[in-house]
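Entry 14. Structure prediction run on the chain below.
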Amino acid sequence: MALTRQHPLATRRRGRNAGVALALAGFAAVVFAITVAKLSSGQMIEGFDHTLRPSLLEPAE
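Output returned:
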């Protein structure tokens, strides 16, 4: 038996790992694209952190 011969399970596992890697890279690309789209709008991004935000108050007359 040669040392370079692969077991069929190893070949299938490599294909499955490549699929998982592509899915993970696709998810990271989608998250990155959404982040860039939100940041490029030019508005201030404020998180929901249960505090009073001055930008939500009505301006004083």
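The chain is about 50% helix and 0% strand.
Filed with the rest of this week's runs.
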